From TrEMBL:
GO terms for molecular function: aminoacyl-tRNA deacylase activity; ATP binding; proline-tRNA ligase activity. The keyword Zinc-finger does not apply. This is Proline--tRNA ligase. Consists of three domains: the N-terminal catalytic domain, the editing domain and the C-terminal anticodon-binding domain. Pfam families: HGTP_anticodon, tRNA-synt_2b, tRNA_edit. The keyword Chaperone does not apply. Homodimer. HAMAP family: Pro_tRNA_synth_type1. SUPFAM superfamilies: Class II aaRS ABD-related, Class II aaRS and biotin synthetases, YbaK/ProRS associated domain. Belongs to the class-II aminoacyl-tRNA synthetase family. ProS type 1 subfamily. It catalyses: tRNA(Pro) + L-proline + ATP = L-prolyl-tRNA(Pro) + AMP + diphosphate.
Length: 573
């Protein structure tokens, strides 16, 4: 590729609505362009990365005996009614009508359509197992699209669906997909963790999420460094025993309120020591309802794995600027920000007693405000004597013993980039998708489904790999692997020839190379490629050439080094 014939459009500043670094850098590097809320044009530079993600996913899906097809974007409502999801999906499902008034869904996922394909195609157990997949556009009318490609409304997903004759077969197909996902995320060059996404009640989890590890991730992951226990927060909390936690104490927090003794009374009442401290953040939110705006004050309890400053600078800052229309919407956000959000009346009276950090998380904060005494937790603002208070102690925190008895738990944050799921016969039963077993009897197909957020991968990769100059792509995902930066190509025949030779050699060696022949000044040229995040840069200048050298700098290197002309290709590979 020659830069003069490609489309490069970089910005010095990110638009103000870009809240997190990946969104900012993708906008600045000209990878995406916003068309509407959660809807983006994938610009040429961004599309190259998307295609690399897709190619790796496709190769590994094919290797794992996945069979590619392509199912329609627009799907008849009747299919969605068969499974009951036409109603269940609520506002997230985008619905359309054709000219005859017939209803359709714009697919958010494709279980219904694939089950429809399979119920008419599969007759006998001899045709099984099967695993169909496609890489296709999705639409989900997310309540709060944000963070660029991370939570878009229109996005690309790889979704696969396995069909087996029995539960053991389904579990085997699931394991094949689990292993394929592990290979895929390793090939991306990203740090990731697979976590159980349900409580594993029947021994072994029927669902796992794959998360790219990043401090800005929306999800809290609970894992044990001394064993292979790993679960998302919801799954971990579902199995956390309430009573032992209460017995272990350290679950009540005192805040500096006008009535701090009340906290002590509550502690005594519940038999809990007042030993834990917590960071809280009071925020004021404009609530818009019925055309009226009222200001409400909320208190955010920070989960133990987050630093106050980080939250202030990032998500909560964004939250404070966000205009909510219902209180439910704020509570919805509670699932997205790392903490609890509780109304504390009309006056923010809560302050932080102590500022111990990371290892602590509050299950409760006792606070007082002008409306009287409140505590927070899952049951906001109720009386402290509620038995629910004890039930709420089922919070998993860093340092808890683990469920497998092999060590203490640690918490880190992740971005959900993949999800594998054992569905069993839920869809095949509601849609009557059966096959004839060895005895000639009809039986429902055993199904699994497996998603990867193709476009979300870009955001997740950047959240994990950037510096103050821009993106640092892992080589496997980079839009180009190598950029050649000639110094004065138009003035120096020597530079021109060396550049053309190197360009040809790199292509012949299978390197994805771009030569920057735009005639820009070195500073501007280097800044562009550092922002775009190309892993290898070679500068070709007359002075170096006279000594038989080129100047090489890896994207993570702090300075350039001289590399002999003859060795440069091997050096880059
Ligand atoms: P989330 O919890 O982030 O809303 P999900 O659990 O609803 O995701 P799944 O139904 O499991 O998503 O879909 C499979 C994958 O699709 C997810 O693991 C994620 O990588 C991706 N994905 C889901 N929603 C979006 C979105 N709005 N924008 C981009 N990618 C998404
Ligand atoms: Mg979702
Ligand atoms: Mg999810
Ligand atoms: Mg999911």
């Amino acid at each position: 590729m020659r830069a003069s014939r490609f489309f490069i459009s970089t910005l010095k500043e990110a638009p103000s609505d870009a809240e997190i670094v990946s969104h900012q850098l993708m906008m600045r590097a000209g990878m995406i362009k916003r068309l509407g809320s959660g809807i983006y044009t994938y610009m040429p530079m961004g599309l190259r990365v998307i295609r690399k993600v897709e190619a790796i996913v496709r190769e590994e899906m094919n290797r794992a005996a996945g069979i590619e097809l392509l199912m329609p974007l627009v799907q008849p409502a009747e299919l969605w009614q068969e499974t009951g999801r036409w109603d269940k999906m609520g506002a997230e499902l985008l619905r359309l009508k054709d000219r005859h008034g017939r209803e359709f869904a714009f697919q958010p996922t494709s279980e219904e359509v694939i089950t429809d394909v399979v119920r008419s195609e599969i007759k006998s157990y001899r045709q099984l197992p099967l695993n169909f997949y496609h890489i296709q556009t999705k639409f989900r009318d997310e309540r709060r699209p944000r963070f660029g490609l991370m939570r878009g409304r229109e996005f690309t997903m790889k979704d696969a669906y396995s069909f087996d004759r029995d539960a053991a077969g389904m579990q085997a197909s699931y394991q094949v997909m689990f292993d394929a996902y592990t290979r895929i995320f390793n090939r991306f060059g990203l740090q990731f963790r697979a976590v159980a996404a349900d409580n594993g009640a029947i021994g072994g989890s029927g669902s796992h999420e794959f998360h790219v590890i990043a401090s800005t991730g929306e999800d809290a992951l609970v894992y044990c460094p001394d064993s292979d226990y790993a679960a998302n927060m919801e799954a971990a909390e579902a199995v956390a025993p309430a009573a032992p936690r209460a017995a272990a104490g350290a679950a009540l927090v005192k805040t500096a309120t006008p009535d701090a003794t009340k906290c002590e009374q509550v502690a005594a009442q519940l038999g809990l020591p007042l030993s834990r401290t917590v960071k809280t953040l009071a925020l004021t939110v404009d609530l818009e309802a019925d055309g009226k705006t009222t200001q409400q004050h909320f208190m955010l309890l920070l989960r133990g794995d987050h630093e106050l400053n980080e939250i202030k600078a990032g998500k909560v800052a964004g939250l404070a600027n966000h205009r909510f229309s219902t209180e439910a919407e704020i509570l919805d956000v509670y699932g997205c920000v790392p903490g609890y959000l509780g109304p504390i009346g009309t006056k923010a009276a809560v302050t932080v007693v102590a500022d111990r950090s990371v290892a602590n998380m509050a299950d409760f904060v006792c606070g007082a405000n002008d409306a009287g005494f409140h505590y927070t937790g899952a049951n906001w603002g109720r009386d402290v004597a509620e038995p629910a208070l004890v039930a709420d102690l089922r919070n998993v925190v860093e340092g808890d013993a683990s469920p497998d008895g092999k060590g203490v738990l640690a918490i880190e944050r992740g971005i959900e980039v993949g999800h594998v799921f054992q569905l069993g016969t839920a869809y095949s039963e509601s849609m009557k998708a059966t096959f004839l077993d060895e005895n000639g009897k009809p039986a429902p197909l055993q199904m699994g489904c497996y998603g990867i957020g193709i476009t979300r991968i870009l955001g997740a990769a950047i959240e994990q790999n950037f510096d103050d100059k821009g993106i640092i792509w892992p080589t496997a995902l980079a839009p180009f692997e190598l950029v050649l930066c000639p110094m004065g190509m138009d003035r120096s025949e020597m530079v021109k020839q060396a550049t053309e030779q190197l360009y040809a050699d790199a292509q012949a060696a299978g390197i994805d190379v771009i030569v920057d022949d735009r005639g820009q000044r070195p500073g501007a040229m280097f800044a562009d490629w550092e922002l775009i995040g190309v892993p290898h840069r070679v500068v070709i200048g007359e002075r170096g050439l006279k000594e038989g050298n080129l100047e090489y700098q890896g994207r993570r290197d702090t300075e350039a080094s001289a590399v002999p002309l003859a060795e440069i290709i091997a050096f880059v590979q």
